[in-house]
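Listing S7. Sequence submitted for prediction.
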Amino acid sequence: MNRNECRQCEKEYAEGRLRAHRHAPPKPDQCMMPGCTATEKLVMDHDHDTHRFRGWICPNCNTGLGKFGDSIERLQAAIQYLNDSTKPISE
């Protein structure tokens, strides 16, 4: 949550997050991010605009998504960057 938001916005955000948490299924035994096997301290991931529950994920996966602004385009650009970085640099 952006700390510069008004109290009404903060309240609406908190209420939306609580609604998502209420509708969330029980926590699984491991992170729901494909390929991740973490089992520690899973957190609720939710869409920050719609407050729709997305899954239970580990703190590392949650932070990673957040750092990319939950943006598919930015994540795809990061994948492209990693793919390109495996190619030899031509002189």
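Caption to Listing S7: primary sequence and predicted structure tokens for the chain studied. The helical segments are 7-22, 59-67, 72-85. The longest helix spans residues 7-22.
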